[in-house]
Every structure is written in structure tokens, then in C-alpha cells.
Amino acid sequence: KSDLENVFKNTQNKNFIKLSAQKDITLLKEELQNYLNSFDSEGIMVSSLDLINACKISSEAIFRAKGLLEESSLELFAFELNLAINELARFTKDFQRDEILDEMFGNFCLGK
Questions:
Q1: Which of 34, 46, 51, 88 is deepest in the core (most CB within 10 A)?
Q2: Which is nearest to 35 in space by CA: 49, 52, 21, 17?
Q3: Can you give the residue ranges of every domain in the chain?
Q4: What's the pTM?
Q5: Cβ neighbours of residue 106 closer than 8 Å, sequence gap 6 or more
Q6: Which of 106, 63, 56, 99 is nearest to 81 (CA)?
Q7: DSSP letters along the chain, please?
Q8: Sign of CA pseudo-dihedral 90, 92, 98, 103
């Protein structure tokens, strides 16, 4: 509101965009686009703490599963793999476990 005192005058942050609800918001769109483009496109952008934790748990489980597979501990490998799948499944679409297994055994050299 233009009739209120500017509480941001003395701020240390210079990344403010002055906007008006009655004017074009093109500048805001451009600044948001620039901000989003500043991230490494090869990296992963995760938006919630729950999803970050699920990714971390899944990643650790997959790492353990890889070691167990190399040791031919197939039962423990399956346990860790299921843990990883279940963590990510909390945030993804429903899936059939057979789809994943078919993909893994069809395209990767597992158990050899």
C-alpha cells in the first residue's frame, strides 16, 4: 500500500522488486525465471523437507543394496531395494512392483 510507511527502506537485501497490483508483473516473471535458471540444470531441485529426507533414505538404501548384491546377499538386497522404493513411492504415482522388476531384470545385468 502506497499510503503506508516503507518498512523495507533500511534492509540489507537489495534484491527487491517494486510491484503494483494495478500494473504489469512482467518484471516479476522475468526475475523469477532468472532465479530458477540460475540453478544447475544437471542437479535436482527438491521442494519439501519430507521429499529431501525420502531421497536421502532411498539413496542410502540403494547404496547398501548395491553392496549386498555384490556380496550375493539377495534377501538383504531385496529388503534394501524395497525400502528405497517405498520411500520414493510416498511422492510418486502408484506403480506395480512387477513393472520395476521387469525393467531392472530386462535392462540391467543383475545377479550374474
A1: 88
A2: 17
A3: 49-107
A4: 0.47
A5: none
A6: 63
A7: -TTS--TTTT-S--------TTS--HHHHHHHHHHHHTS-TTS-----HHHHHHHHHHHHHHHHHHHHHHTT-HHHHHHHHHHHHHHHHTTS----HHHHHHHHHHHS----
A8: negative
